[in-house]
Structures
1.
Amino acid sequence: MSTLHVLSHSPFTDSRLGSCLRLCGAQDAVLLCGDATYALQAGSAPFQALQAKALDVFVLAEDAQARGLSLPDWAKSVDYPGFVQLSIDHDKVNTWL
Amino acid sequence: MNTLTVGARTLELDKDGYLVDLNAWSVEVASALASAEELELTDEHWEILELLRGFYQEFQLSPATRPLIKYTALKLGPEKGNSLHLNRLFKGTPAKLAAKLAGLPRPTNCL
Amino acid sequence: MSRSLLVISRQAPWSGPSAREALDVVLAGGAFDLPIGLLFLDDGVFQLATAQDAKALQQKDVTANLQALSLFGIDEVFACSHSLAERGLSPPDNAQPLSSEQISQMIDRYDQVMTL
């Protein structure tokens, strides 16, 4: 069973990303949208934590673009249809509201 | 606004006929609410109403049907804590009607 | 067979509607006989603290409501050990502490997960 974890809060103000990475299974994937895309800020602690976990990391393209973030090679950019496809490809979606 | 007149008092009711102020409840109020529902309260009803008041005191919420049955069984034994007994007493909707007569808010988890 | 639901409650009890909402989902699910689990994570573990009293805040008592869970048929109540330790809380008697590894497996096991 695989879970897609959807995050939308900034990792700098809040513990969602940290807890998510701690509880993520090996089959799971993370989708970053909204302020959660700030986790891709190169050199930051959340960036390193994501990289170290070596999960599938997806990023909503327009949110990263709006924030001027460049994507590392381990993160895959998706659009909204891609978001929907990911939701289907995983057994369940856990949105960290 | 819905109201209920009991003796000289006029009490406020919500849109579903539940007492707005939990503390305004009394035996007379329960009887008045019951007669509005065309129900004659017997000792068997009263013991459930008392039980519900206790439930609310303890858990700060009105029980849905299943927890009401469980709690009744726990406190009064299985011959009273079953759906047959409670449905018979409260016209088939024990969670809603008994909560109303006990002066509790409408059970929120009971559609 | 209905699908099982794990509700993860991760906000402190009195700061906003989130703790209340998580509990309402759980109680409603219980009333409909859904196989349901409740996990307290992050600040959510503060909901389990004893001797809370929010009367002066004029809020409904979430912690009293939690005591009713087993009457609503909800016996799967867990707390994250890591979150408890982080906050200096000892294991509560009303929720079973789980390690991160166990939580990970549990998320896997449930059909649906909702984090509030």
2.
Amino acid sequence: MKLFLLLLSSLFCINSFGQSAVVVDPAKGASLMEAIADAAPFDTLLVQPGTFKEGRIIIDKPLFILGVGYPVIDGEGKTEIITILSDSVTIQGLQIQNVGVSYIEDRAGISAEKQTHIRIIDNKLYNTFFGVYLKNSSHCLIQGNEIKADAVNEISSGNAIQLWYCNNILVQDNHASGHRDGIYLEFVDDSRIENNTSTNNIRYGLHFMFSNRDQYVGNTFELNGAGVAVMFSKKITMQYNRFINNKGTASYGLLLKEIYDGTISNNTFLGNTTGIYGEGANRLEVHHNTFEKNGWALKVLGSCMDNTFTNNNFINNNFDLTTNNNRSYNNYDGNYWSDYTGYDLDKDGIGDVPHRPIKLFSYIVTRSDASIILLRSLLVDVLNFTEKVTPAFTPELLQDTTPLMKPLL
Amino acid sequence: MLKIFKYSFQDLIRSKWSFILGLFYMAVTFGLLYMSNDLSRAIVSLMNIILFINPLVGIMLGIMYYYNSRDFSELLLAQPIKRKDYFLGQYLGLSLSLVISFVLGLGVPFLLYGVLVSDAVVNFLTLMFAGSALVLIFCALAFWVATANENKIKGFGKAILLWLFFAILYDGIFLLSLLVFESYPLEKFSIAATLLNPIDFSRVLIMLQLDVSLLFGYTGAVFNKFFGSYVGILLITGAAVIWVISPIFMMLRAAKRKDF
Amino acid sequence: MITFKHIYKSFGKHVVFEDLNLDLEKGGIWSVLGPNGSGKTTLMKILLGLVVPDKGTILMDGEEILKQDLYRKKINYMPQIARFPENLKVREIIAMIHDIRQQPADEIALVNRFDLGSYLDVPLKNLSGGTRQKVNAVLAFMHDNPVIVLDEPTVGLDPVTLLKLKELIQEEKDKGKLILLTTHITGLVEEISDQIVFLLEGKVFFQGTLDHLFQKTGQDNLERSMAAIMEHGISNIDSDDSKITSHYA
């Protein structure tokens, strides 16, 4: 946290270096490109309402470009729009639109490479292939942007926010929709993703690859192909996020693949095909989350070890848990399960009989997809009951020995 | 036929059975609504109950009514009435009085809880439709079994077996074949197998409305797409109609040669 | 009026009729007699279309009636056991039969005759056996039709009602109707029968008047005549007088 305060304070300081303010008014035939060329470092350009169609705009000196009343920078579907080739550039209040789709280069609404202290604030990026794209950069802020597109398929769409080989980036209060991934991070360390909303993206709302020590907190991921994918990463902190209605043919609220030593706490998983899907996820602390009305709350494959699931609420999921292994290497003690039918004679709030969260039918569905059509049939109830009484197929020792009687608030 | 229908309906709607049945549905519905205080959740819980109870009620009361009205049959068949008309009238009288018990028993509590102005109204109507279809179908099956079996005990036995078959054995065989042939694509087979069991297609119809099938990956989506389409809904409705008509047809065929 | 031709009927392995022929040629009271299981009720039910014969035809006023329905308009029927839809009231069941048959009826006179006035609004399930039988009688007699079929009509009736029923039958007979009757009360048969039909071993064993029967059996009352037939078998009687079967010769 200290790191971020430092980062923020340094960012805010930049303003004070600005020397003069220049008004750029398209109504008077002003050119943004010329204005940038004419400006001195640390000048402020006050861009007035109107439309600029100047192709690719390159910012090669520290500038504060401030849009007044959202002036439009239109790429006309041809090129990248703003390329930042300098440190300490702030772009605020612009409407940047129409970047051409390219299968060769990753064109963006705003891109920066090998820079620090870039701030991209309160812009509207419409139909920009890649929205904001930072490469090899650090100590940057991406805040309050609205990034929208109408992606149709994965191949011809970019990511709303993409970070590549970056560190110490704060991505905050953005709204990303209609892209391939809402926010994509590859080789990004020590960064924070906070209070963003990522919806209706084709692939993931948020996607980590090979990134370490990052945090994402308080974000909402809704109606994406899958909510969040965290892959090949270590020490990721995931808190207070909402994973909602991420459903479809192969959909997850949160997909974990080859990750180690993370924390997943205080999140809400509501109405997803699968709440958390874990494959090679290890040493995770999963606590104080609520899983409600999901198809599967947890799919924890046999390759997941030493994870602790405790103090979570499992409420009205079709299946709370499934696994493909008949032994369990994870701890599931101390959760609330709405399916729990045991009793609490000593009134200590903890059920006196262990709860076995894996139902036989979830095991069967894992084996044969099509058997899902028998969901909620009498046969399935009978099978589940039989298995509960005398476990034969599901891991016998996978149980919550201290199930809670009441949900945690 | 209408006259017979009128009389057996009049007789039944005043009987304690209709009353008890309606009261039972009402008590269960009120109970669930009170406990969950949420229309959609009550509908989910009711679905399980209805899929279990309605076929049982249809087939058991059908059998009982048929055997109990043997003397009535004798009295009326000695009148200038066609056998076909008599049995159709009886069937309609019974099944519609049961449907009314069901619809009122469920409908009144839901209406009082304001289902019509909630977003659960489609779910509720689907539940009503599926539940009524189950009653009609299993009543028809009961009439067929009873007509074909002079012996009351045999008739009862076969009816219970029939219910057991559709309620659970069928699904058992279904599931076993899914597991045995798990390496083959089974979507089409599953769809066909579902349409062949009235309890299964009623369940699927309600589940579609409850939108849970979307939660189940690729196969769930396939089913959802099929049964959710107009073709799917038409097929289910068609299957329901065929499931009512064919036992009635068999019943009439058996009745034609039957001695009273 | 009614002719049974070559009727065959068996229930499973149990053969009831084997080439039964019977001609109820004119009105009057026809009593069908025979040992238990000889097919008295079955014969009536075949006439009413309740039982479907395996083979054979039945003509009524020259028209084939098997597999038809509307001929039953001409037949009134009083079944052996009177059980009705339990929740209907007496008034309603009368109205129902009336409604179904759509024929003129004088149910009021009959209700008064059998003292059923105070029972009209009582559900049938609350009636005693005898009262039910009275209701049964009302239903059977309230329409004015040429054929009346009475299957054990006297069961459960008290002497007064029995008397009323006898009078009623007599009155109907006097209108020239054909009344087909079974009963175990031999006295009643002797008292009112015009013709006796004796069923035995799947056939009509005897048809004729009471006097004929006495003559052929050499007895002077019905009970003994029946006993004689049943004890001595067909051959005995057969050799005695050809007239017994002469009707079909």
